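B., you asked whether I could sanity-check this one before it goes into the benchmark set. Here's the sequence:
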Amino acid sequence: MSSVTIDQRATGYSLGHALCMAHAADLAYKDKNTVENTAREWGFPRVRHHETRFSPPFPLEDTQAYTIAGEHMIITGFRGTEPKNIRDWLSDASTPPYPGPGGKGFVHYGFGEALNSIWPQVRAALDEFRDSGQTIWFTGHSLGGALAMLAGARLHFEEPRLRADGIYTFGQPRTCERLLAREFNTAFADRMYRFVNNNDVVPQLPPEPAFHHVDALRYIDSKGKLHDSMPLASGLVDRARGLTADALAPASDGVRDHFINNYISALEKNQR
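And here's what the prediction gave me:
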């Protein structure tokens, strides 16, 4: 991790910055000492840890994140959860809808509860650290990607004086219904970047039509090549190719593709 160099003056999208944000999403899984030491190595000397416990009707007991601040940039990284823990409750579309940010549509109940439980801590860190006009970035993998997207939406729709300059998510599940997705796509046309690795199972959940993805897809194909979109026909062929890549364990592809280290490896490969 110490070899990562984050350009704190970065704006908009670049492959290099996407790789940095993937490392930042991975950092959310580390212990507090590792987060603090790594942040300092990256040039972000100020760190706040966020953690809270709550009891939704799924096997999800806490939300964890961190906020780090440098001279020109602030990053909040949200921790995700492993596929074996997330798949069952993501598949459950019977829970009540949770009001979306700023009254814009609805979100998956688990996501709404998870972000709401930690949001006061995140907002306090942003207020504390943003003392010289630093840009604000949210990132996360898996569940953390859903929380990163919703955090950006909360700033935009509820506190427009403070906005996220960019959101990078990796293996993000479907997060909201159609109305919020449409409003979010308009607001974040050049600020949201959602990466999906081939057959990653988590972006395929919760089920449609109740839940939808936001736009700005960046698709990693079965050979590890990054695309700005995934055409329907060729995308289906490529996903089938990924499923048959491991003849001994074809069903494992959807879980294997979800691991954050595989996103990082793919982005590194595309930089060469």
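One thing to flag: The first helix runs from residue 15 to 27. Otherwise nothing jumped out at me.
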